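Many introductory courses stop at the sequence. We go one step further.
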Amino acid sequence: MLNRILNHLEEWLIAFLIGGATLVIFAAVVHRYLSGVPYIQDYTVQLNMSWAQELCIFMFVWMAKFGAAYGVRTGIHVGVDVILRKLKGPAHKGLVLVGLLAGALFTGTVAAMGANFVWHMSQTEQTSADLEVPMWWVYLCVPLGSSLMSFRFLQVAWGFMKTGELPHHDHGHVEGLDDDEATPAKA
């Protein structure tokens, strides 16, 4: 139950961030275009959109951190597995587990160091240039996203130990399209 909630929260956060950033960029581009149109520019110049670029950068950074965790969970990360494909049996399982646990250790270390950095950043008065939000809010994505990614590595490792299967992303699968509906289209 908790895992399903976390999965949905992760997906909704990523969708909100990429959708919101797209809308902000669209508004900024329309604003920039309209600022050059006679008669309209008098009104658009009064609207300050200088914050849009900074907000989009922050949103994409947050989206990338949580998107990386989503990638671990769903198996869409690119990996070099030439040697793994040649191995069979215990050697294969052992090397996969070492890789997953190394990923969990690395991202856990990044999360701990990121939390320390954010803690020290929160003790300062540093704010972003355009939005003037505390910078520790911006950097909070590092410990949060890395912690989630470490959890996902451990989750995949646990599932692999139990079933011997890794998450695999089928590039030909379209979410929301039933197999019954796709069959006539192929014919």
